[in-house]
Amino acid sequence: MDLGLKGRKAIVCASSKGLGKACAMALAREGVDLVINARSADALERTADEIRTETGVSVTPVAIDVTTDEGRAALLAACPEPDILINNAGGPPPGNFRDWNRDDWIKAVDANMLTAIFLIKETVDGMMSRKFGRIVNVTSSAVKAPISILGLSNGARAGLTGFVAGIARETVRHNVTINGLLPGPFNTDRLRGTVAARASRDGIGEDEALKRIGEANPAGRVGDPDEFGHACAFLCSAQSGFITGQNLLIDGGGFPGTL
Q1: pLDDT exceeds cutoff 90 at 258
Q2: Mean pLDDT along residues 194-214
Q3: What is the pTM of this model?
C-alpha cells in the first residue's frame, strides 16, 4: 500500500533508538525526508547513517535537548515547515508519589506534555495553511490504564492527551490530524531497563524476566518496535485524514476493556 508520503518532511523526536527510531525508519521507507533528534550525538549519527543507507532519503540529525526553548528552536530551524511531527520522549522514572517534589513534577510535565504542545504550537498553523499535516504523539498505554508506580508519566501524558482532544477537532477540516500512539510492552532499551530491575529483584536472568512479561501478554510476546513504526506511518498517511483525536493502543491486547 502506497501511503502517499513520498517527498514529505518529518520531524521525529527521540529517534536515535527504540520506538522513535522505528517511527523514523518506517517513514523513511515511505520516502519521507527526516529531521531526527536525540541528546546523544553519536547514537543519533549512527541512526541517521543507518536510515540513509537503507532508504536513500535525506536525514538531518539534530542533537539537542528538545525540552528546552533553545533545543526546539534548533530543531525547527532544521525543518521549519514539517508535514509530519512525531512527538516522543522517554518517560519519567517510576516511584512512589510521596517521594516526588515539585521539581520532579515540573520535569515530567516539561518532557511529556509541554514540549509536545509547544512543538504543535510552532508547526500546526503552517500545516493548516498548506492543507496537509500529521501529528502523532507517542504516549503510553498508561493513558488508558494507569500504572501506580508511573504516576509522573500517568499525569503528564494524560494532560497532553486531554489537550489534544480539543484541538484535534479544530485542525482536521484543514487536513491536519493529531493522534496518539499508546505503546504497551515493546522490546526496547527502556523495557529492558525495567526488566533488569525486575530480574534482580526476583533472582532470575534478564532474558527470563523478559520472557515472563511476554507470556503474561495475550499475544504471548512483547512487541517488535517495527510494528509500532508501521502503525505510526499509517497514521501519517494520505489515507488517514479522517482519523483525528484518537488514541491507538498497541499492546498485544493487554488492556482488557472494550473502549
Answers
A1: no
A2: 85
A3: 0.95
